[in-house]
Design goal:
Elements (H helix, E strand, L loop, with lengths): L1 E4 L2 E4 L9 H8 L18 E4 L2 E4 L12 E3 L12 H8 L9 H14 L5 H8 L9 H14 L1
Parallel strand pairs: 1-5
Antiparallel strand pairs: 1-2, 3-4, 3-5
Helix pairs in contact: 2-5, 3-4
Length: 151
């Protein structure tokens, strides 16, 4: 079984059948940006993009991504240049503790892949499943709007 991870074809080891995409990324590939938060797909800390869609990796079976394209937060920057969403996050000092931020960023990237100029309602709908215990929602919205302006 194989899939594309951040632009490179990767094999899914047979002994990883039954594991989640989150643990495949973290434990097999060493990509620890996606975080384990709730384990049931409601907090969004584990969000990655699978075939263009924001996906909760903690509830996605590893074998279900066969043939898919997976993008993690580690795969956003190109040649050392941050993705516009990442840059906006830094410019506006969005993170407080930072734990949820990779998932927030990936949901924002998926949103902007779908809508080049999302409305506030589009932003709210896309980000609704990402929880931030520090309450940085206002800065998250502002960063998404900044990323729209930058692209």
């Amino acid at each position: 079984m194989a899939f594309v991870l951040n632009g490179k074809t990767q094999a899914i080891p047979a002994d990883w059948a039954g594991e989640t995409l989150l643990f495949l990324l973290r434990d097999h590939f060493g990509l620890v940006g996606a975080k384990y938060g709730c384990g049931v797909g409601v907090c969004g800390a584990c969000t990655v993009i699978v075939d263009g869609v924001a996906t909760r990796s903690c509830i996605t079976p590893a074998e279900s991504i066969e043939g898919s394209e997976v993008r993690s937060v580690e795969g956003l920057a190109t040649d050392g240049v941050l993705h516009p969403v990442q840059q906006a996050w830094l410019d506006l000092a969005v993170p407080q503790c930072g734990y949820c931020q990779p998932g927030q960023i990936m949901s924002a990237v998926a949103l902007l892949n779908e809508f080049s100029s999302p409305s506030d309602a589009d932003i709210d709908a896309a980000m609704d499943g990402n929880l931030c215990r520090c309450g940085t929602y206002g800065r998250i919205r502002a960063a998404i709007q900044r990323a729209v302006e930058a692209t």
